[in-house]
Amino acid sequence: MDIFLRNKNYRKLSVASWLSGAGNILFYLALMTYASKLKNYSLALSLIAIMEAIPNLLSSIGGYFADRTKNKYHVIVTLALIRCALYLVVGLLFASNLAGWNLVLLVIGLNFISDLAGTYSGGLSTPLIVDLVGQNDLAEAEGFTNGINQVITMLAQFIGSGLLLFMSYTNLAIVNAVTFLISGLLYLNVGRNYQKQQPINTNVNQQSFWATLKSSYHQVKTAHGLLTIVLVFALLNGILSTIEPLLSILVAGNKSMLVGTYSFTIALFGALDSIGMALGSAIGTKIFKQTSLFIISLLDTLASIAMVIALLTKNMLACLVFGSLLGFFAGVGSPKLSQWLITSVDHDILASSVGMLNTILLIAGPLMTTIFTSIAGTTRVNYALYGIIAVSIGVFIVTLAVMHSAKQKQ
Questions:
Q1: Of the candidates 144, 169, 204, which is a domain's last residue?
Q2: How far apart are CA 153 and CA 24, in angstroms?
Q3: DSSP letters of 44-69?
Q4: Are 62 and 123 in contact (CB under 8 A)?
Q5: 254 is in which domain, residue-wise?
Q6: What are phi and psi of 261, to 5 degrees?
Q7: How far apart are CA 81 and CA 349, in angstroms?
Q8: Does one domain contain both 230 and 359?
Q9: 200 & 218 share domain
Q10: pLDDT one-digit tens code per residue, 158-195
Q11: Where are the alpha helices (DSSP H) in 2-99?
């Protein structure tokens, strides 16, 4: 938080990111609500979910093109204005005579283009944030920003559901457009201020896409233990993603675990998990600033094992506590992992490397969720939980071994 308060340019960059993120969530809720009223709503909702996920899985490609971009601030401003224009068009479409599937498909297409631009923009901002705050303070700065972003995400979901009661889809699309316009102006201001203080780094990556990934992989591999920790956190993220659907299955068959109603129980667990992650990012990164990422991953692994034991014993209070801890340590670890990665690779391939990291972390969630929910659905939910304990113990042992090896090489 100290960095956020004293670094004016970073503060503006963070606010711009929060604004565009909040606007996106508001509009996503509006689009999902409209699609839910269609005759074949399940297909429409699935299509929206898929089109939302694809840009995130293309982070490494977006990062690659970002590394090849010279005037990053100029391009970020341009992308924000383009996204503003796209949602103004979306607003006009909602106000037109179009309806049903014709309207939904057009809006999904425009929203997909905007999300692709967002992935590219995210890659562009990565090296700029490093330049603004420095490598040593990156984990603390990113942790605070991510923590606040978690809170904004929760608030935006509640606010969005409330706004839908009296605002039209057109107005919500325009609200989203305005958030991108304000974000673009903030990016423009930061770019001008930063250029006055010091020359902007114009180094760009000249390698091909595959050569860039290969170079990034070799540099990450050189930092002893980093590649293993990336895979460890991918598995831990996968466990975190899998816990909630398994909890939903378990609670549905065990009424004694309910806290009020079924929907409230699931919502409460999700909220506490998000709050834990927000606190880990915003506060935990400062508390554990000097703590090794290996220790954080061990604590996160222990929290996951305790969480599964709580599920097996059907102790809902323990589930809520350990679910929050699981989110907390994940929130602490993510910024620290980004900092280690950024200090281990060349500046001109930062966005590509972070994009590759994000892709690995994102793929693990749906993959492990699919595997363990399939086990729960075809056999018993307890077998899926035993499987998660086995994975957690394996992760714990590997982390201990790599940590011991890293200490010996120091």
A1: 204
A2: 10
A3: HHHHHHHHHHHHHHTHHHHHHHHHT-
A4: yes
A5: 211-409
A6: -100, 170
A7: 26
A8: yes
A9: no
A10: 677 677 777 788 888 888 899 889 988 988 888 877 76
A11: 2-6, 8-35, 41-57, 59-67, 72-95
